[in-house]
Amino acid sequence: MALTVTLVSAEEEVWHGEASLVVAKTVEGEIGFMTGHEPVLAILAEGQVRITQTDGAKVVATAHDGFLSMEGDVLTIVAGHAALQA
């Protein structure tokens, strides 16, 4: 099983796909998500969102001014600004 992850900014969908692990920075500190994680609603802090795809490939984005929501195995990250890092 995999997480279904969507990362969006105010302007566009930045990334969408399946992941085995996602780590994001919230105002409470960093939090990691895997399948089966309990439901969470948290405020994003400025920082990185690190996504490990199911094939092991890594995606790194910066995000801030928003929130994240985990429900079931679906993680949605909504940011005022988000961009993939090269």
UniProtKB/TrEMBL annotation:
Record keywords, A-Z: ATP synthesis, CF(1), Ion transport, Membrane, Transport
ATP synthase F1 complex delta/epsilon subunit N-terminal domain span: 3-82
Organism: Microbacterium saccharophilum
Family to which this protein belongs: Belongs to the ATPase epsilon chain family.
Main localization category: membrane
GO CC, one annotated term: proton-transporting ATP synthase complex
Subcellular location(s) of the protein: Cell membrane
Topology in the lipid bilayer: Peripheral membrane protein
GO molecular function: proton-transporting ATP synthase activity, rotational mechanism
Protein name in UniProt: ATP synthase F1 subcomplex epsilon subunit
